[in-house]
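Weekly modeling sync, notes
Attendees: S.R. (lead), two postdocs, one rotation student

Agenda item 3: backlog of single-chain predictions. S.R. asked that every request posted to the team notebook include the full sequence so nobody has to chase files. The rotation student volunteered to paste the first one in as an example of the format we agreed on. Action items at the bottom.

Example entry:
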Amino acid sequence: MDLWIALIVYVVQGIIFGVAVNTVIENKGYHENWFWEGFFFGIIALIVAVSKPPKPYEPMRESPLLKKSYERQGVSSNNWKCVFCNSINANNVTTCSCGKSKEDSQQKIKEAREKKDIKNVVQKEAYIIKIIAQYKKLLDAGAITQEEFDRKKQSLLHK
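Predicted structure, as returned to the notebook:
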């Protein structure tokens, strides 16, 4: 009989500590289930949960499901995306929750596009130089004439 009473007291105590530990963890901003830690380890789990630092605020990230939901609602055209933290902000909001402004985000997008354009030009020029070098090898091997080489070179350089 005493064994049953001890078992019931242990289970009730475990449930109380489990709920308490889980509530502390959720209030600190964590989305983890700590019920079983509280159930089995009781006061030790509660001390660990209380001593755990609060989780820093993270703005909601853009998920594919959220993006599709916005597109279905037609909301995506009225919002802007912060390129620094990837959060979606209303069009009338000028500063993101990460502290960056809408203008900063748009400027970074513009710089990235310009950098991509420069990279494409450099890659195109490198490709042209490579093709001219291949034609030069054909000229040296006697497979094409000097006139054909000059014509091809001019056409590649003036595209």
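Discussion: group reviewed the output briefly. The chain has six helices and two strands.
Action items: rotation student to repeat for the remaining queue; S.R. to check formatting next week.
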